[in-house]
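Service request form, structural biology core

Requester: graduate student, group of Dr. S.
Request type: structure prediction, single chain
Budget code: on file
Notes: please return the result as structure tokens.

Sequence provided:
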Amino acid sequence: MRLDTTSGIPLYVQVRERLRAELDRMEQGKPIPVEAELEKQFGVSRITIRRAIDELASEGLLLRQQGKGTFVQRPKLTHELSLITSWTDQLKRLGFMPRTAHRKCIEEVAAAHVADALRLEPSEKVIKIQRVRLAQREPISYMMNYIPSRLVPEFLKRKFAQESLYELLENEYGLIAAMAVDTVGSRLATEEEAAALRIDRKAPVLSVRRLSYLEDGIPLELAFVTSRGDRYQYEVTLRGRPRPSGAQMAERFSVQFNGGKW
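Core staff response, request fulfilled:
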């Protein structure tokens, strides 16, 4: 695998790009050859190899572990929480083709915690949708969605062909989420989640509980999303600091004045 020394392209760049192509064919967590082996493979110095590896590590494609080696790492998919977007929309924005490996839809009487969140009567039913979501061919998220049956009549008779549930609700039922509350946490995967996501049992996962509402404040959907901790992350955009109200300013002035600061 000798390099082209006459092309004008720096040797470390050639090494980096050939390694990048190899990484695309390797599984997450697999070790790459040690530096000495790569030196012989490419016919270059240790410094050239290290620079190529350092750049791939800075891109999040490799992970160095002291005393253990260098391992393949996939860059994390970042889900922005500043807008109400579907998992499908987020993956498309990042340049991935979202797919569903497993989809199961049933209608059942809502469990107590679901009924409470969706403000349902004890006997009311929900549509329960269970899915394993893929980015390209890699399992990333395990989803459970609950929608009040009264909002989506004959849902089970319709063809759920779209990847995006929000798109289906909007196009087929005219239901648009106007607000959503996401609660994000971390924990260890359950046995069921580990099997669905093809990860080790009790591997770290990100857990999101989303409760979305229609414009009139009626709960639309309760969702539980479990995503691989090594492949997924959430990002929130914050702007500005809260300004004190007029009453707070008057109270602050009074405290400062009465306290003898002026």
